[in-house]
Design a protein that fits this description.
Helices cover 0% and strands 43% of the residues. The protein is an all-beta fold. The chain is globular, with a radius of gyration of 12 Å.
């Protein structure tokens, strides 16, 4: 997974998740990923720029249409986008 031109605020314990949750703009989307199946790709490598994350070979990408920047500590989204 490549995140290109990323720009998000920094925060504690933010991870990159492939998620079954839909992408919903604004505050309504902040908490969606917690209640859906997800694959944790690890801690965010930085909050600005381009970053690459390895997706495990056994992950069915058809099950995960979105990527979330997820604060594990506070169970809140730092951003989400559709997987393309």
């Amino acid at each position: 997974l490549t995140l290109e031109n990323l720009s998000t605020s920094s925060g504690p314990d933010v991870h990159v998740w492939l998620s079954a949750a839909p992408v919903v703009a604004g505050f309504d989307g902040w908490f969606l990923a917690a209640d859906q199946p997800a694959v944790d790709l690890g801690p965010i490598k930085g909050n600005v720029g381009n970053h690459v994350y390895e997706i495990p070979a056994d992950v069915d990408l058809g099950q995960f249409p979105s990527v979330y920047l997820w604060c594990v500590q506070f169970a809140v989204s730092f951003g989400a986008a559709a997987v393309v």
